[in-house]
Amino acid sequence: MDIFDVVIRNGRIIDGSGNPWFKGDIGVKGEKICRVGDLGRFQSEREIDAAGLLVCPGFVDVHTHSDSSFLVNPKADSKILQGVTIEIVGNCGDSLAPITELGRSFFYKELEEKGVECDWTTVAEYLKRLEAGGLPVNVGALIGHGTVRSSIMGYEARDPSAEELDAMKSLVEDGMRDGAFGISSGLKYAPGCYAKTEEIVELCKIVGKYGGLYSTHIRNQGESLIESVYEAIEIGRKAGVPVQISHLKVKGRMNWGKATNMLRIINEARRSGLDITFDQYPYNAGSTGASAITPSWAREGGTQSFLQRLKDPEQRRKIEEGIPEQENWTGSEKILVAKFDPDPSYEGKSLKEIGKMRNRSRESVMCDLLLEAEGVLPVIIFFGWEKDILDIMRHHATIVGSDGSSLASYGILGRGKPHPRSYGCFPRFFGRYVLGERLMSMEDGVRRMTSFPSMRFGLKGRGLLREDMFADITILDPDKIIDTATFQDPHQYAKGIGYVLVNGEITVEDGRFTGVLAGKTLKHPVHWK
């Protein structure tokens, strides 16, 4: 008789496919699921009684910014305690590899302040560094277009020369050969905002040769939302690659209601044969660096050039005048300071509040804070209308993605008041919207967090509870699962996640992280189309 390492008994199994749940057991040996069904006569080293609980594949977070989190603290646990077992990093055009010395110069200070030495160049070296330090979850990587561009051209607001474009293509090709899952763009951010559509198309053609996808933070999510979606569609068609629109949303009060037209355009593109999907976080607020809501010309040259412009009175005046034009700044309900090292008492306060304290306009006080914090000013922007959020969430092509990082409630990763999505995205989606508001079936909700993202990104052997699949498993209590993190108190872990297995090892037990680092780095299969 077979003896399993772990048997999960008596649970309601939601296998990730979208099929109805069924009662059964799961046997795990080593890294893999060996049997699914009635395992009453089988023995095991360890048993988990899942009576009254839901047994699901581990959740897959395809849109994260945990690129340096595990280098800072390998036990960063805010995602594993949500039931997440896979994270995809390198989003919004911002990756830590592939990188050149020129590219490294733009972020080495930030890593240095976190105690991280950037001793890699290639995607392969970066993944090796991640795995050497230990990981609580599995991690795969995208190639950031912004990182590639800055590695060859710096932060120059111009088109690349033929030689520079070839060098960028070479970096992308090397990254794909090293196992990257595709390329991401951040066309709102410098230096990505300086790239024209054709530049992205040419780089995506390289990605397409290797079967990768194009993930994009589109140029504008407010007034020019529709035009920006059309650009993503054009890139996908011209390059022949699948398109994944990142954190799809509608920003700014005057744009509320645009989700209907936007989704119609996406549906038309899908009917015409373009493979386009998107991800979403279930909140009416986003988070970004405050410099991203200044005019793009002000950010040319990188952070130090930006700060010099802020110190020049005439350029400062023009920057302040240009701020309200950035994705309907004036249509945002409120903007909170998420982290401000010079004076942490400002964290959680709105720019409007701080402006009153200093007797300054919020545009002026934001520029003041940017200077004082040497350009590092994360903010949280409340922009959304619940109807738009729900319309996007209901769409069959929606994947859940946090747009957050793996954090911890202590140490350097526990500082500030970051967006609560880093601690609560998945339990909020499932507990509030799926189980609470019954926006969709349990089975479809689980599918959007498991098999759908696994299929979309080519995560072989992940996302389903089937024999011979990797044993990434999340066991949750449907009566208790919910987020507890708030905007004023974000470092709060979710409730209702009882057990999590990563590659067959128990990493969460009775709702607590065991400290086991069973994660691996994942690589996209290298093949030519």
CATH class of the largest domain: Alpha Beta
CATH architecture title of the largest domain: Alpha-Beta Barrel
Number of distinct beta strands: 21
User: What is the fold named in CATH at topology level of the largest domain?
Assistant: TIM Barrel
Distance between the termini: 45 Å
Mean pLDDT: 95
Give me the CATH superfamily of the largest domain: Metal-dependent hydrolases
Structural class: alpha/beta
Which value, in Å, is the CA radius of gyration? 22 Å
- Low confidence ranges: none
Number of domains as seen in the coordinates:
3
Proportion of residues in helical segments: 25-40%
- Individual helix count: 17
Structural notes for this entry:
- There is one protein chain.
- The chain is an alpha/beta fold and 529 residues long.
- It folds into three domains: 3-56 and 494-513, Urease, subunit C, domain 1, CATH 2.30.40; 59-287 and 383-461, Metal-dependent hydrolases (TIM Barrel), CATH 3.20.20; 290-381, no CATH class.
- The chain is built from 17 helices and 21 strands.
- The chain has helices spanning 69-72, 101-104, 108-113, 123-133, 145-153, 162-177, 197-209, 225-239, 259-271, 303-311, 313-322, 351-358, 362-372, 386-394, 421-436, 442-449, 451-457; strands at residues 3-13, 22-29, 32-37, 43-49, 54-57, 59-61, 84-89, 138-141, 143-144, 182-186, 213-217, 243-245, 276-280, 285-289, 334-337, 378-382, 398-400, 473-476, 497-502, 505-509, 512-513.
- Strands 1, 2, 3, 4, 5, 18, 19, 20 and 21 form a nine-stranded mixed β-sheet that branches. Strands 9-10-11-12-13-17 form a six-stranded parallel β-sheet, sandwiched between helices.
- Strand 12 (243-245), helix 9 (259-271) and strand 13 (276-280) form a beta-alpha-beta unit.
- Helix 7 crosses helix 8 (225-239).
- It is globular and about 80 Å long.
